[in-house]
């Protein structure tokens, strides 16, 4: 498969939203860019919790979680809109991949610099997340199929971030942030290894 399997693509609301965007002439590349902006904003919101207090603190956590969800929504809709408009941009794959990597790094670094977290773990999670995508792309360039397996593919990483942000907003950042980043880092390393091993098996069979 050349696309990440996402069950929500078949949901009625997602189909109607994609249809509306396509009918309005919105380009898939523009959606990808807006998804990246949401990803960067999520990182800023999460990092901003280290400078927030009072009511602003849970709002920053929840804002970061919501922006991660918005980024994932854009990641799903860009391909759906491209299909409906019947347009294949020569730079579409670049718009699909590069903003994702920027968003991953921004969000995970943001969580690393968040209140009660650890920047070192944030950097480790961000670098290993990029490694999973690099391995997937390199294996595909070598002739194997695109491999979106986890356990810490992009949707899984972002789900962990959303859960961590919601738990932190409830008042437990010291309890959740470091373990969440540790899970993402270790899971991403394992995911990269799984994808590399599967690609090697395919290419040498």
Spell out the blueprint of helices and strands:
Blueprint: H1 12-23, H2 28-48, H3 56-85, H4 92-112, H5 119-141, H6 154-169, H7 173-204
Architecture overview:
The longest helix is centred in the last third of the chain and has 32 residues, at 173-204. The chain has one domain: CDP-alcohol phosphotransferase transmembrane (TM) domain (Four Helix Bundle (Hemerythrin (Met), subunit A)), CATH 1.20.120.1760. Helix 1 (12-23) packs across helix 3 (56-85). By secondary structure, it is mainly α. It has helices spanning 12-23, 28-48, 56-85, 92-112, 119-141, 154-169, 173-204. It is globular and about 50 Å long. 76% of the residues lie in helices and 0% in strands.
Task: Give the tags.
7 helices; Four Helix Bundle (Hemerythrin (Met), subunit A); mainly alpha; 205 residues
| Global outline | globular
Helix content: over 70%
Characterize the main sheet.
none
Strand content: under 5%
How would you name the CATH homologous superfamily?
CDP-alcohol phosphotransferase transmembrane (TM) domain
What is CATH's topology name?
Four Helix Bundle (Hemerythrin (Met), subunit A)
Uncertain segments = none
Query: What is the number of domains?
Result: 1
Using the coordinates above, name the CATH class.
Mainly Alpha
- Quaternary state of the chains: single chain
Overall mean pLDDT score? 93
Beta strand count: 0
Structural class: mainly alpha
**CATH architectural label:** Up-down Bundle
Spell out the helices and strands N to C: HHHHHHH
By DSSP (H or I, 4+ residues per run), the number of helices equals 7
State the separation between the terminal residues, measured CA to CA.
19 Å
Any idea what the radius of gyration is? 17 Å
């Amino acid at each position: 498969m050349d696309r990440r399997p996402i069950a929500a693509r078949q949901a009625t609301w997602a189909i109607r939203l994609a249809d509306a965007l396509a009918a309005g002439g919105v380009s898939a590349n523009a959606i990808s860019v807006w998804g990246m902006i949401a990803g960067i904003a999520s990182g800023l919101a999460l990092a901003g919790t280290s400078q927030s207090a009072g009511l602003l603190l849970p709002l920053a956590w929840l804002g970061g979680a919501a922006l991660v969800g918005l980024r994932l929504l854009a990641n799903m809709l860009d391909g759906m809109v491209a299909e409906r408009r019947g347009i294949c941009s020569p730079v579409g794959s670049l718009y699909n991949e590069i903003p994702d990597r920027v968003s991953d790094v921004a969000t995970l670094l943001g969580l690393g610099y968040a209140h009660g977290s650890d920047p070192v773990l944030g950097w480790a999670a961000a670098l290993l997340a990029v490694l999973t995508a690099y391995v997937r792309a390199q294996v595909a360039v070598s002739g194997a199929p695109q491999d979106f397996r986890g356990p810490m593919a992009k949707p899984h990483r972002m789900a962990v971030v959303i859960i961590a942000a919601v738990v932190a907003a409830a008042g437990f950042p010291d309890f959740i942030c470091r373990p969440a980043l540790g899970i993402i880092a270790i899971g991403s390393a394992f995911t990269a290894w799984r994808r590399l091993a599967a690609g090697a098996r395919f290419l040498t069979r």
